[in-house]
Amino acid sequence: MLTEVLADLDVSPEESELYELLLQSGPLQAGKLANRLGCPRSSLYGVLSKLEEKGLVNQSLHQGVKVFAAQDPATVLFLFQQRIDKLKTAQTSYKKLLPELLSQTSSHFSAPRYQVYEGGEGLKS
Question: Tell me: the pLDDT tens digits for 42-57?
Answer without folding.
Answer: 889 999 999 999 999 9
